[in-house]
């Protein structure tokens, strides 16, 4: 079959003399129409630079192609070299023939325009649609990537959507032009497993319908197994192994490929949960949440104050004892992060009680966010960053506090000279370790970890999880662990709470919830977990519509009813 794209000896460099020390060296591969190649490797391996070179977006980031060719086959069968193409020719390709889904949607979406306007623009530019036709196409695109209340969400700005919803908006925009090649750079990193399965099914469906080829960049080997035809493993800008999917996954030859496969957390259906903590009824909870409700009013127009509210969190309750990890799982927009922010006081609760232990320095709850780079002020060195929470608590920066900093840096595996360095001088995993150290500066009782390892490579992720478990044992910490990765949840959680449409629908011991799910949503969630053993699977996507969180003014739901499914296992009646 004629290749859609044929790359030979691609080399890419940066800086004043890019040819001197290229970051991508001698990459070669062929991609046929309808074929998917997965680019796998850790941060800094050259995956994204390779992908950005194909549509020449690397040019806008200071990169230059210093060697090699990229032969692109036009619809009429003729070819031309993308490496030598001028900007005018590339403008006709980007979006229409080569689509792109970026990893971080917040930096890709315009913050001053509604998401509806931005999707409509994609349809205008790529398909020539105008007015109502563009608006209808945009709403259908949002429906297709399963954003609830699509017509209402069209009016939202990016900051009003969760991370997972923003990523779905990006996917809808990328597919607006029905491209012949789709470059997907970690497109499901921020998504929960059910929506991830739906997106993967959508991509597979489009491949079948349009003969669309795909370059899929990921660190999730389970996703690679489910969608890729071939795999290319990269390390330090070089391709160290490539071949057909089964050959690479079943019989890896390079030590780095073996290392990557060995670091992947495998979901075992509750068989590998932690058993190093037992609840005691005599232990006072570190935090107790009772009937938590968080609602955001919706304006009804110029002459009315509000027309209703978004019921983001509705009647949530749980407790968390010292030394225990409670994982909250659920799809994007289910209320996980809103619950955490309410506990921290970052979001105002409409009603309900949140009771925390007094805390050793009056700051009983601290938080580690998903994106460590966005959490750290780039203008402050590590010493100032670690001192921030202490200063906010009214403490003095003295010799004792500096000693505390050094102890925590050592404990999270960072060198002593880190105090004088800045965030950009650390890797992603090291920055997250800094965030963990900063969260521990005030000896908190509870640490909230909101997708704290989802942006990390699998080998780094494993090390950070081991660190979190060690710190929990050492300091008696209680963790509220928010994640969409069920394999990670299984590895770290003692108990699991499943949230759906703003409500907890199942809660209990991790072994019980993960091995014997009772609620229909929990069953769907676990069934959607990708696995390395599932090769090019057909994703069985549940099309059940997510209940709308938008309720009319004055609406109050009925009381929740629960049934006991076993010892420490409660299920909400559907």
Helix tally? 19
Our count of domains comes out at 4
Return the CATH architecture of the largest domain. 3-Layer(aba) Sandwich
Structural class: alpha/beta
Report on the biggest sheet: 8 strands, mixed
What topology, given as strand order, has the largest sheet?
15-16-17-13-18-19-22-21
Number of strands: 22
Distance between the termini: 51 Å
Give a structural overview:
It is a single chain. The chain has an 8-stranded mixed beta sheet, with helices on both faces. It has 574 residues and is of the alpha/beta class. The model has no long low-confidence stretch (mean pLDDT 87). Helix content is 32%, strand content 24%. Helix 3 packs parallel to helix 6. The protein is built from 19 helices and 22 strands. It has 4 domains: 176 residues, Rossmann fold; 68 residues, no CATH class; 192 residues, Rossmann fold, CATH 3.40.50.300; 85 residues, 3-Layer(aba) Sandwich (Rossmann fold).
């Amino acid at each position: 079959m004629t290749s859609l794209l044929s790359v030979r000896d691609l080399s890419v460099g940066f800086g004043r003399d890019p040819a001197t020390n290229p970051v991508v060296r001698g990459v070669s591969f062929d991609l046929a129409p309808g074929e998917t190649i997965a680019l796998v490797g850790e941060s800094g391996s050259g995956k994204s630079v390779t992908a950005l070179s194909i549509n020449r977006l690397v040019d806008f980031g200071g990169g230059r192609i210093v060697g090699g060719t990229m032969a692109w086959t036009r619809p009429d069968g003729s070819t031309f070299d993308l490496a030598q193409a001028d900007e005018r020719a590339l403008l006709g390709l980007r979006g229409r023939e080569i689509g792109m889904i970026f990893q971080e949607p917040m930096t890709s979406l315009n913050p001053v325009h509604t998401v509806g306007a931005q999707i409509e623009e994609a349809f205008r530019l790529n398909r020539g649609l105008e007015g109502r036709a563009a608006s209808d196409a945009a709403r259908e695109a949002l429906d297709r990537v399963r954003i609830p209340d699509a017509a209402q969400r069209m009016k939202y700005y990016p900051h009003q959507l969760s991370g997972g919803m923003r990523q779905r908006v990006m996917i809808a925009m990328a597919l607006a032009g029905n491209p012949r090649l789709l470059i997907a750079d970690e497109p499901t990193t921020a998504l929960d497993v059910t929506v991830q399965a739906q997106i993967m099914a959508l991509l597979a469906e489009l491949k079948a319908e349009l003969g669309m080829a795909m370059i899929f960049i990921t660190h999730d080997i389970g996703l690679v197994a489910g969608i890729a035809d071939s795999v290319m493993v990269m390390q330090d800008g070089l391709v160290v192994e490539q071949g057909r999917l089964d050959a690479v996954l079943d019989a890896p030859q390079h030590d780095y490929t073996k290392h990557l496969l060995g670091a992947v957390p495998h979901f075992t259906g509750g068989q590998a949960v932690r058993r190093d903590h037992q609840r005691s009824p005599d232990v006072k909870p570190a935090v107790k949440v009772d009937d938590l409700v968080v609602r955001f009013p919706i304006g009804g127009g110029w002459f009315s104050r509000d027309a209703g509210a978004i019921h983001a969190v509705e009647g949530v309750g749980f407790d968390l004892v010292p030394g225990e990890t409670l994982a909250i799982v659920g799809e994007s927009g289910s209320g996980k992060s809103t619950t955490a922010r309410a506990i921290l006081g970052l979001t105002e609760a409409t009603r309900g009680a949140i009771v925390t232990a007094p805390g050793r320095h009056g700051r009983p709850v601290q938080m580690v966010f998903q994106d460590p780079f966005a959490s750290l002020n780039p203008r402050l060195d590590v010493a100032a960053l670690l001192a921030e929470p202490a200063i906010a608590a009214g403490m003095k920066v003295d010799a004792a506090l500096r000693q505390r900093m050094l102890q925590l840096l050592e404990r999270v595996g960072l060198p002593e000279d880190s105090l004088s360095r800045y965030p950009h001088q650390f890797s992603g995993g090291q920055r997250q370790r800094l965030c963990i150290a900063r969260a521990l500066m005030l000896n908190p009782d509870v640490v909230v970890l909101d997708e704290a390892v989802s942006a990390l490579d699998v080998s780094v992720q494993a090390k950070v999880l081991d660190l979190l478990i060690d710190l929990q044992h050492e300091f008696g910490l209680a963790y509220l662990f928010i994640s969409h990765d069920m394999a990670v949840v299984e590895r770290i959680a003692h108990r699991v709470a499943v949230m759906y449409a703003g409500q907890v629908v199942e809660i209990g011991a991790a072994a019980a919830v993960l091995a014997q799910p009772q609620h229909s949503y929990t069953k769907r969630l676990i069934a959607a977990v990708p696995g390395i053993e599932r090769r090019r699977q057909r994703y069985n996507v549940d099309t059940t519509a997510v209940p709308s969180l938008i309720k009319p003014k004055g609406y109050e739901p009925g009381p929740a009813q629960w049934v006991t499914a076993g010892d420490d296992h409660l299920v909400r009646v559907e």
